[in-house]
Amino acid sequence: MAGDIFSIALLSLFVSATSTLLATLIAVPLGVTLGLREFGSQRLLRNILFTLYGLPPVLAGLLVFLLLSRSGPLGALGLLFTPVGMVIAQVVVVTPIILGITMSVVATMERRVKETAFVLGADRRQLSVTVLREAVAGILTAVMVGFGRAVGEVGAVFVVGGHIEGKTQVLTTSIITDIQQADYGHAVALGVILLVIAALVYSLLYRLQEKTLP
Amino acid sequence: MTMSVDLMGIEKGFDGRPVLQGVDLRVEPGEVFALVGPSGVGKTTLLRCIDFLLRPDRGTIRYDGKEAPSDTSGQLALRRRIGMVAQNPFLFRGSAFYNVSYGLCVRDVGGPALEERTNAALDTVGLRDLSQAPVSRLSAGEAQRVAFARAIVVGPELLLLDEFTANLDPANVAQLEKAIGAYHRQTDATVLIVTHNLFQAKRVSRRAGLVLGGKIVEVDTADRFFSNPTDERTRAFVRGEMPY
Amino acid sequence: MHFRFASRWTAILIATAVTLLAVGAYLSLPRSYILMATTTSTRDTGLLPYLLPRFTADTGIDVRYIAVGTGQALDAGRRGDADVVMVHAPSLEARFLADGDGLCRNEVMYNRFVVVGPAADPADVRDAQSAAGAFQRIHNASARFESRADTSGTHNKELQLWAAAGLDTSAFGAWYEKTEQGMGATLTIANERDAYTLSDDGTWYALEGNLPYLRILYRSGEPVEPVLRNQYSVIPVNPAAHSAVLAEEAVAFARWLVSPRGQSLIGAFTVNGHAIFTPNGAGAC
């Protein structure tokens, strides 16, 4: 199979980690703000979000593809079939997941947390930060789930990345092409590498999460 | 600095069930006032109305004779002059020190001033040596003391205490009552303490009031209230003859 | 104190994100290579890793490619996402040029289509006298057949052969299965299901080792039956619609492929010992 396994694995890690980080920066502040809102306005938003949970990554990939194609609105950026394009596609996939879980964690947080901060004189911004701090264990879970989605998905990165040798080949797309060429042994080996990478990232995040438990 | 509180015609209900049905009460600046009454009568609701956790359905509350400002920053400023300790307080994750210093952080106090004041508050409740202990390792009594220190470290002019020694053993109760007294002497703050412990009420307060049927039934000096009250309901209550 | 801690963490995360994006931008820099859109069949023969580095060595132009279905490859050219297209579907190529999406067209090489099937050969394809005849036998025996059904060049060829045998695929029974996938995947399925299929010999020889239950049951004699020719052509994309297309380099590539140098390399290329491509370079680029 063409392509250096090391650089393929490295690109997988780079794309998934970058997209998870960006999705976290977008989704967590938004999730805390929305989770703190009163219940009425939340229902419609929740429905939209939960529908997005079911958004097939390959569909997200198609939408980003149409966006980044030279014939598309953002074509001038020349990001189709590039790593940044793949990151963008995965951000679309991962953000709803982190957003939804963060919202749930914050909304179901004990009323007493918000009230205690309130009574001690926190303004809105300080209250959000305090709630975020108290919810950080749940938020880290959201990040772990998001990363899992990113590192394991193949539809979006295939459509937007194009699996170009030396440029946009990642573990999951390589597994698919291996299967297409009946190179099953190699496919399984790549799969094991992917699992190892995921396990390493998870153990790191888990260690972080343990530190945040009371 | 201290503050007076005037409650006028406060009404509050939940899901159609009326709780407060026209509460009138004046708490003088700098006094320690005990609010007593059976469980579920609305004492906690009253405190939560005073501290902006609940909005009364009817009636007004005046702080130093003025109603609460309508703008957010004005309300925030007023809120920051009021402190409250609840019965089962929530402690933020982290150390006792983090919790006690929280109010100071919120008010942008930092550096040596923060450390000094936090340690002083911890001293008041006798927990200086546990300041770095994680809150999960604290006993109920220690947790309550941390909550108290957390409330007073910012020097509230009005301190609301909601049955906050209800679950504690006598030693902790005594310590906290001592701390209330110390704080009150230092700052001359107004203290409104809700309690069902009549002995406690007698120990700490100067005046007391009975809440019954959603209204204030009788208010008097502590001496007269507990030994020779006017109203027969009060009499029944202080004698322990009122069913809970 | 506490809130400064939060600000510090936010700053660290944002700084990390910006750094990673900068790295990403560097990796995604404006292309220094021409991008070719080609088919999975081209990739599966293994020709490209052999040919492209030699082109780069000769001209200094770097070529990368995406291997997708024929339809998507031509669409990539139409959208301006690729600089040059290499497919093997003459009728679709003609339309591509007629629509003004292609600049010019060079025929490069051809390999052959073969009929592969289970070793036991229940439809007796071995005795067929022509490709259409082989298909006729498969139909008469209602033997399981895998169709790519993906508008690829191979699929078009398959439909041509059914038509030549006077048969209407819409009337076929359950023995006619549609995989809607590439050649490699379709061969794998045929191998698992003891089915017949039409394949190009390049992909077949490349994957033969993994297809133990299949054999070539019908192949053309010499000279090659025209209908079994799998003609590959290269078409630089027309820069008129998309100015970012690297037309000059794409044309250089098209010319190189039909040059004596390119053609001899193609003729020398073998898959597992089989020289599958017949160079027949010609064209206007």
How would you sum up this structure, described in words?
The complex is a heterotrimer of chains A (214), B (244) and C (285). Chain A has 214 residues and is mainly alpha-helical. Chain A contains ten helices and no strands. Chain A has helices spanning 5-35, 42-53, 57-68, 83-107, 111-119, 124-134, 136-152, 155-161, 171-180, 184-212. In chain A, helix 1 packs parallel to helix 10, helix 2 packs across helix 4 (83-107) and helix 4 runs antiparallel to helix 7 (136-152). The model of chain A has no long low-confidence stretch (mean pLDDT 91). A six-stranded mixed sheet of chain B has the order 6-7-8-3-9-10, sandwiched between helices. The longest helix of chain B is centred in the C-terminal third of the chain and has 18 residues, at 170-187. Chain B starts with a strand and ends in a 6-residue tail after the last helix. Chain C starts with a helix and ends with a strand. The interface between B and C is small, with 7 and 4 residues.
Spatial gap, N to C terminus of chain A: 49 Å
Number of helices of chain C: 11
Order of helices and strands of chain C: HEHHEHEHEHEHEHEHEEHHE
Strand content of chain C: 15-25%
Helix count, DSSP H or I runs of 4 or more residues of chain A:
10
Biggest interface, which chains? A-C, 39 and 41 residues
Key phrases:
heterotrimer; B: 244 residues; alpha/beta; 4-stranded antiparallel beta sheet; C: 285 residues; D-Maltodextrin-Binding Protein, domain 2; 2 domains; 11 helices; globular
Task: Explain briefly what this protein structure is.
The complex is a heterotrimer of chains A (214), B (244) and C (285). With 214 residues, chain A is an all-alpha fold. Helix content of chain A is 76%, strand content 0%.
List the helices and strands and how they pair.
The complex is a heterotrimer of chains A (214), B (244) and C (285).
Chain A: H1 5-35, H2 42-53, H3 57-68, H4 83-107, H5 111-119, H6 124-134, H7 136-152, H8 155-161, H9 171-180, H10 184-212
Chain B: E1 5-14, E2 17-27, E3 32-36, H1 43-50, E4 58-63, E5 66-67, H2 72-79, E6 82-85, H3 96-106, H4 111-124, H5 140-152, E7 158-162, H6 170-187, E8 190-194, H7 198-204, E9 207-212, E10 215-221, H8 222-227, H9 232-238
Parallel strand pairs in B: 3-8, 3-9, 6-7, 7-8
Antiparallel strand pairs in B: 1-2, 1-4, 4-5, 9-10
Helix pairs in contact in B: 3-4, 3-5, 4-5, 5-6
Chain C: H1 2-27, E1 33-39, H2 40-44, H3 47-59, E2 62-68, H4 70-79, E3 84-87, H5 90-98, E4 106-118, H6 131-140, E5 145-147, H7 153-164, E6 176-178, H8 183-193, E7 196-200, H9 201-207, E8 214-218, E9 229-236, H10 247-258, H11 260-268, E10 278-283
Parallel strand pairs in C: 1-2, 1-3, 5-6, 5-7
Antiparallel strand pairs in C: 3-9, 4-7, 4-8, 4-9, 4-10
Helix pairs in contact in C: 6-7
